[in-house]
Structures are given as structure tokens and as C-alpha cells.
Amino acid sequence: MIQPLFYEILANYESKFARVIDLDYNLMNDDTIIDPIYGEIVLDRRILYLTSLPLVERLARIKQLALTYLVYQGANHSRLEHSLGVSHLLTKFPSDLSVDDSVTLQIVGLLHDLGHSGWGHALDGVVGRLISEVLVEGSLSEESPFFSYKKLDIAIVSYLLLHNDQLTNALNNVARSLTSDNALSYVENPSRLRDVVASVISEEENGYELFCKWIDSSPKAIEKIHYFIELLGRDINCDRVDWVVRDAHHAFHMVTAYTGSIEKVSKNRELLKTRNKRGGALVNKAEYLKNLKNATKAVREELYNKVYEGTEKSFMDSLLVRLVYSCLMVLSAYGNATASPSTKSRVMMGYIFLPDEELSHYTESILNVASQVPGIDQASLNFIRGSDELQQSIFKNMRVVMSLIRNNFRPAKAIRPYEGSNLKKIGKLRIGYREFSVSYLDIDWFMAKVLSGNGLTSKHTLPSHLTQVEAWVLMNQFLNDMRIDVISSLEVYKIEEAINQLVRDQNKANSDFRVYLLPNYYFLRSLTEDLEDPKSSIGKGDIFKDFWQMLIKKHAHRPIFFILTKGSGSEDVYAIIENEITNKFGEIIQNWSREIKNRT
Amino acid sequence: MWTYTLYMLDAFIRRRGKYSNIKFKFEDFSNFVFEDLWKNQKIVFHDTAKDLLKDVRYLGELNLVQYNENSNRISITDGQYATIRKITVELKNDPIRERVPLVATYINKIEASVPTRAPGRR
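Output (C-alpha cells, whole complex):
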């Protein structure tokens, strides 16, 4: 039954994360914890108090790198570990902090990732859908300070800072203990503490205008907020310093190559003798940035290439996105049919807010009962049923699947196109009595079939009614749309339904044969970010030629779609899969182009 | 997402209501993005004015605008504006907006910043 699950998620959020915690921090003492990177860290009693809130403690049950530990065994560290690390670093860079500023910065560090969902960045691919449902159409739209496809976590943390009773009550208690800053007057105005924290975490240049309506009376506070933003994100970026070092420490074998980098990072911290951006240039800032960049360059490249955007991680994140996206479809449909918009929004938020293990549990439970939910069209329902099958088979055996991909994905040597198809095979595995195959379509296919096939390259004539610049803008918009919500943009559920229908109609496989599609959101994100990078230089000359070269140079062989099949079928099946996906891209591009032509 | 910046630029021009020999300060456009769209419509595409300027420079590379680095002014010829209009009409009719409500929301919110009857236009 979906109904008990629906309300269980709501009750879970309200009872654990929304209720006020009756804990007196005045009876607490400062504490010392041992951090794997920095060693002993003294926790101010106020930070200890905030860390003990269920809302914050939840971060201890969210892995910083989701399922990456299946490949890099040590990558088990939690988002709380990272948050405490940032909290510690923020007070180490400047040398002249008051007690109030030190506590405020530690709170900023502790809470800056509070808005992260279970499985963290692995679920970035559902953000567009969730924002549409919760922050735009749902009841939280008026309460949310802003919404952006890039910043769901910040929208959520801002919402929590302003409206969550557990957090606001605790922060008010802490604010009343901060007495040294006359400019902010926390004792008389305790809510100012969360306003300042929200402004800093948003990392927006003018974020204080949204969160600190009182700020006009306190220009010193504006200066301070800018300085804190500089420390958390932007140039100094304690957040990045911590995750680079920490992720590398946990993921890799550190004793040799990376220890030196960490030492260099630590040494560079000492270069900062501080002062803020508005009040004067940071001493040695340029030197600091240069050294920091050099010190961490190798580690960052290694992390991005192997850990964050490696093929195994792309596959597992694509699977998680599909599973969670399917659950959101179910919760949305049930909420639309039976609950108020407010309740639906809170349930969807409550679901995404679950820590890893509980998110896994509820995902399985929701997918199990999806068939009972009214108001879901057949293609979507079959897509959700497919997600249920993937959850039962692939997700529960991810360690084996990761091993299969790790040992067989060698794009430089092992590009083995099927006859008549660009679909590339990674390997097979047997789970129970079922055989699954894992394959993919990569950027080579995208360039040859999608771009060239629709005249969007320098090798082919562009549609006559479009100039190169016009075609370029529209193609970028198409990629941007996909990045916002790849599953709905491409109507992946319809492509999958069409493929399975064709395979059945043409008797190309056994009766239990089934195809599952996993679009690689992280490829799209990486591609759109490259296109926004001024260094890409696309636009000065032959745009599509430059684009083509950038794809070859930076994205060659990267999977765009992972394809899983269950059961055995003829080789024709793979041609059907490729054709249907190619046709969908072509249909969108050509429809757009045709509409433009008609209007011209 | 500089395609949305282009759309914002067109909305800004329509709000100003001057469609020929267009010239304005970057700061005015920046105020439109951060004061109106950002604060009133809750649209966040750029963290800072520097981010916005990066997109404007790119639009300059595509020869859709000219940005003068010394005076910090943006100028747009009549021919460039005709191209901008052609493109932004297509962006407004983005076929994917029907499937992805957030795309429609972004476009609607940018449109909401342009008065129904813009100054200088009947």
C-alpha cells in the first residue's frame, strides 16, 4: 500500500527533524574530536550542541561520495565529517576573529551542506524535477528564498534556516550567547544569526538583501558577510580545500603521491594573514591562490577523472537518479490524487531528505507498490516497474556490477561496435536465473548520428533557415533543458516503452527480454559547464568545428546513455535501441528546426 | 546558461522600450538581473555581476552584442537586435517547456519582468 508509506515519510520528517529538541547547551562543555585530516579539533560547546540536533546529525548518515566506496573502499566518510572539517578550517584561515565571528563561521561550516539529500551529489540529476514539484508548484514556493537548477541544496538549507523549528530554536539559543558584536546585536535580535548564516551559505553577492532585511542599519555586517563568503566559497574556499583533501585521503592510497599536496595546502593557509575584500585586499591572496591551485591540481584532476566522473561512478549515479526519479513520479501522482499540495511537497521533501540507508529502504518500498498508484500513464508506469526490477537486481548487486564495469570498460582499446550499431558492450552478468547485459552509447555516437545526422556540424550544411549562431544558441538551449531534467526532456520513459514494444512486435528476443535506459546526467552537466567556460573559445570562428574538437578532446568515449538488457535477444535488438534513441534526439532537434522554419 | 542570459537581455531591452541603436550601461542590465529577476522573481542564474559579465562577453564573441571594456557599455546594432529577437522568440517557444515545468517557469518569470505594455510600445 502506498498510503502508509506516503504518510510515514511525512511523519518521519516531522517527528525527527522538525520538532524542537529540549537540550540545554549551557550544561555542555567544549569537546575535542579527532579528525582524520587535521587531528585534534576543539568543538565549541555551541557547535557540539548544534551537531547533536537530529537534523544535523543526519549528515553523519549520508556518505559524502554515495556508493563510491564500492570502487574506492575507503570512501566511506560522511557529510558530517566534511562539514566539521570545513567548520574547523574556517576559523584557521583568519588570524583576528572575535569569539562571535569564530562561532558564526563554525556554524556556517557545520550547516553549509545541511540541504543535501541522501546520496548527496549522486542525486543532482533529480533536482530539476524536485524543484518543479516542490519549490515552483508546491506550497513551499512562497517560503523558499529562491530556486535554481544548480542550487537545490542551498534552497533547502535556506528554507530550513528560516522555517525549521528545530534549527531556528537552536540557533536562537546560540545567538543569545554571542555578546561581543555590537554591530549585529545577536542577544537582542537572535534571528539575525540565522540570517547571516543563510546569507553566507547562499554564496550570493547580494544574498544579504534577501535574508537580512535589517542590514541597512549595519554596513559592518555587509562587509563581514562578504568576507565570510570569501572564506567559505569563492577564492579562499575552505569548502573546496576540505573536500579535495578529504576525498583524496579516503578514496586513494595516500602515503606517497598526495601527502605532499596536503602539506602544501596546509602551508598555504599560513600565507593568509587576512583582511577582507571590502576593507582591503587579502595579504598574499594572489600567492595563496596560485600556490593552492598548484598544490591541489594533481589531486583534483585525479579526483575528477577517477572518482567524481569515472565510468563506474557515472553508472551508479545514473542508476540512483533513475530509481529516485521513479519514486518522485509515484509520490507526485499519489499526492496529486489524494493530498493537498502542501502535504505532497512535504512528503517529497521528506523522502529526498532521508539519510542513505532509509532512502534505500523507502525507495525499494515505494517502487514495490507503484502499480497501485492511480494517475500514471502506461509508459511512465512501465518505466517505474523497470526501475523496480533494476532496484531488485542491479542495485542490490552493485558491487558485482561495479566490478564488471571496472574490468571491462576500456574505451581506448575495447571499442567493439556491434554490427550495424554504435552501441558498445561492457559485459554480462547473471543474477539468479536472469542474464543482464550492460552497454552504452557514447559521445562518438552523439557526434556521428545526432549532430551530423541533423546537420549540426561543420561537415554538413546547416538547415538553410538558420545561421550558425542561431543553430548554436538553440542547440545550447536544448542541452540546458536536458541538464535541468534529462528524463522528462527526452521522455526517456517513452523511448524505453517504444524500444520494448518494437522488440516484442518484431519477435527479436525472448518473451522476458527487457531494455532499461539510464541517461548519464553527469555527462550533460560536465558538457554544459564546459560550454559556459570562456576558455572553450567556441564562438570566435567556425562554431561547430570548434565544438566538435572540444568533444573529441574532452569527452571522447564518455557514455551518454547506459543501456541494460535483461534476457537474450538477437543482434537486431541493439540496432533498434540505437535507432530509437537517435530518432528521439533527431525528432526534438528537427521539430524545433521545422517550427522555426514555419515561423520564418 | 548563457542562453537564458540572452533571453534576459531581450527582456531588459523590451522593458526599456528602445529598439533601435540600443546602448546602455552594463550596470543597468546587471541591476535588472539582480534587483528585479533575482530579488523579485527569485531567478538565480548568476552568483555575481562578474558571472553575468562573463556571459555578456560570450554574447559579444557570438557577435550578438558589443561590449566596450573601457566604458562598460553594451551596444546592439539594429541587425544584431533582429537576430536576438528571432532567437529569443524561439527560446520562448522551446518545445521542451511543455515537458519540463521548470523551463516554462524560468521563461514565464523572465517574461513577468516585462510590463505587458512596454514603454514606447503600443
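Residues 311-338 of chain A form the longest helix (28 residues).
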